[in-house]
Specification:
The complex is a heterodimer of chains A (about 100) and B (about 160).
Chain A lengths: L16 E5 L2 H7 L3 E5 L5 E2 L3 H8 L5 H6 L2 E4 L2 E2 L7 E2 L4 E5 L6
Parallel strand pairs in A: 1-7
Antiparallel strand pairs in A: 1-2, 3-6, 4-5, 4-7
Chain B lengths: L1 E3 L2 E6 L5 H7 L7 E8 L3 E2 L2 E10 L1 H26 L11 E7 L1 E4 L3 E9 L2 H18 L2 E7 L8 E2 L4
Parallel strand pairs in B: 2-6
Antiparallel strand pairs in B: 1-2, 3-8, 4-5, 5-7, 5-9, 6-8, 9-10
Helix pairs in contact in B: 2-3
The chains are: A alpha+beta (about 100), B alpha+beta (about 160).
Protein name (chain B): Molybdenum cofactor synthesis 2
Protein name (chain A): Molybdopterin synthase sulfur carrier subunit
GO molecular function (chain A): molybdopterin synthase activity; nucleotide binding
Chain lengths: ~100, ~160
C-alpha cells in the first residue's frame, strides 16, 4: 500500500529549472520580463547559460545584449561567471549596462 | 524602501518631494546638508526628449544602494580619523537618504535625490558626489529615452558607461 515516491518507476523527476529575469534591453530583445528555463544538465556553469538563452531567442539582438551584460544570481552580482554553477531553483538576472541617475 | 542605521534608500513610482527628503536627514548636530537633484533633460544629441522611463531590479537595486551608503559613511569616517584623530569618535556623516524614481518621469522632474547631513560641508559635498557616481555606475536601474517624432519601439535604453 505504501509506495515511497522515490521508487515509483514511471515518473522521472522534472528537470531542474531556473527563473531568468530580463530588464531593459534584454527585456526589449526577448519580449519577456521573466522566463522559466529547464537546465539541460546540472550543475550547469553560469558561463554556459548565455548560449542556452540565446538559442531560445534566435533572430533577435539578444546575443549582442548578452555580450555586454553581466549576471546576478539570487540577488547577488556575479564577478566571475566561470566560478558559479546553477543547480536549479535559482533566480538569475541578465544585468545590462546600468543607466540610473 | 530600506532603512539602515546610516539612512534610507527608496525606490518609488511617485514624484520625489525634495523638501521631505531633505528633512528626513535633518539633525541638530548637522552644520551642513548637501543635496543633489538629478532631473530629466529635454534634449539628447539634437533630439527632443519627450519622456524617460526608469526600470529597476528593485530587490537588488535597493541592496546596492544600501551598500553604497554604508561605503560613503565608512570612507568619511576613515578620512576624518586620519585628518583629525582627536575627533575620531564623532561621525563625519550623520544621515543619508537616496531616492530614485521609477516608471515614467516627465521632462524637468527629479529622477534622483540624494541628501547627506554632516557636521561639516566638506564631508557632506564629498559623500553626495561619491554616492551619485556610485549609483550611476552600479545600481541595477535602467533608463529609456523617448524622442519626439520617433516610434516608441525605437526608444533607446541608455548606458552610463
Amino acid at each position: 500500500m505504501t509506495t515511497p515516491i522515490s521508487s515509483t518507476p514511471s515518473a522521472s523527476p522534472p528537470p531542474p529549472t531556473i527563473t531568468v529575469l530580463y530588464f531593459a534591453g534584454a527585456s526589449t530583445a526577448t519580449g519577456l520580463t521573466t522566463e522559466a528555463v529547464a537546465l539541460p544538465s546540472t550543475p550547469l556553469p553560469l558561463a554556459e547559460l548565455g548560449a542556452l538563452l540565446a538559442a531560445r531567442h534566435p533572430h533577435t539582438n539578444f546575443s549582442a545584449v548578452l555580450a555586454q551584460s553581466g549576471w546576478a544570481v539570487d540577488e547577488e552580482m556575479v564577478d566571475d561567471p566561470r566560478a558559479v554553477v546553477l543547480k536549479g531553483g535559482e533566480e538569475v538576472a541578465v544585468i545590462c549596462p546600468v543607466s540610473g541617475g | 524602501m530600506l532603512q539602515i542605521p546610516e539612512g534610507a534608500c527608496v525606490l518609488t513610482h511617485d514624484a520625489l518631494c525634495v523638501n521631505e527628503i531633505v528633512q528626513s536627514v535633518g539633525d541638530d548636530r548637522a552644520g551642513a546638508t548637501a543635496v543633489f537633484i538629478g532631473t530629466t533633460r529635454n534634449y539628447f544629441q539634437g533630439k527632443v526628449v519627450t519622456r524617460l522611463d526608469y526600470q529597476a531590479y528593485s530587490k537588488l537595486a535597493i541592496k546596492t544602494m544600501a551598500d553604497i551608503i554604508r561605503a560613503a559613511h565608512r570612507n568619511a569616517n576613515r578620512s576624518l580619523s586620519s585628518h583629525h584623530p582627536e575627533q575620531s569618535s564623532v561621525a563625519s556623516l550623520i544621515r543619508t537618504a537616496v531616492y530614485h524614481r521609477l516608471g515614467t518621469v516627465p521632462v524637468g522632474e527629479p529622477s534622483i535625490v540624494i541628501a547627506v547631513s554632516s557636521p561639516h560641508r566638506k564631508e557632506a559635498f564629498a559623500a553626495c558626489e561619491f554616492i551619485l557616481e556610485e549609483v550611476k555606475q552600479k545600481v541595477q536601474i535602467w533608463k529609456r529615452e523617448f524622442y519626439e517624432g520617433e516610434r516608441e519601439e525605437d526608444a533607446e535604453w541608455k548606458a552610463n558607461r
